[in-house]
Design brief:
Largest sheet: 4 strands, mixed
Helix content: 25-40%
Mean pLDDT: 75
Number of strands: 10
Order of helices and strands: EEHHEEHEHEHHHEEEE
Shape: globular
Distance between the termini: 28 Å
């Protein structure tokens, strides 16, 4: 099944084709916000994701034991992808952390960029990320505009074509057990590092 996107939002093929389809490209700043938090500081989203063949959104939270168990494997895979081809895939961390302090701790020292916490959690506008159910129950926040991906748990990874925004992979991780200490495999990035 093919999924069509208009600036990162699910749409129909007719709408997709009406603005030139794949040739028009996605504006990642519209989808993810104008800046991303990188290891070097805040940078424009467009420059961080320029020329990337794939953009993988990682929905994760520091409160989640499965996320903490999954992260070292993801980081190892990320380093292999970057060593093989720096422009193949960029991961963007999308926080489901409880607050900005937890977000800052979760992103400190990580090699990938992150969507700013306030944008992810909708602290000044509609949330773009995935808002925890308990947070939604205590506030008037919605699940987030990325609900189109049908995310049900974290960690979750969705990967899109870096130029068009078209969904490439919706299930970017595979659980192989029922406990955090059970093994997980990073599935979404395997195509990007063939031979490694």
């Amino acid at each position: 099944m093919t999924h069509y996107f208009d600036n990162g939002k699910v749409t129909t093929k007719a709408v997709f084709d009406s603005w030139g389809g794949a040739s028009a490209g996605v504006d990642w700043a519209v989808v993810l916000g104008s800046t991303l938090k990188t290891p070097e500081g805040d940078k424009p989203t467009g420059s961080v994701l320029a020329n990337k063949r794939h953009v993988a959104l990682v929905f994760s939270g520091s409160w989640c034991p499965w996320c903490r168990a999954f992260e070292p494997m993801l980081e190892d895979m990320y380093k292999k992808v970057k060593a093989n081809d720096p422009n193949d895939t960029e991961i963007v961390y999308v926080s489901v952390d409880a607050d900005s302090v937890a977000f800052d701790e979760a992103t400190r020292g990580k090699p990938w960029p992150a969507m700013p916490y306030d944008i992810s959690q909708g602290n000044r506008a509609a949330p773009v990320g995935l808002v925890q159910r308990k947070t939604r129950e205590k506030s008037d926040k919605t699940i987030g505009t990325l609900k189109e991906y049908g995310l049900g748990s974290v960690p979750s990874i969705v990967a899109s074509d870096g130029k068009t925004g078209s969904l490439v992979c919706k299930n970017g991780r595979q659980e192989l057990g029922s406990k955090p200490e059970d093994d997980c495999r990073v599935v979404v990035l395997v195509w990007a590092i063939r031979g490694i």
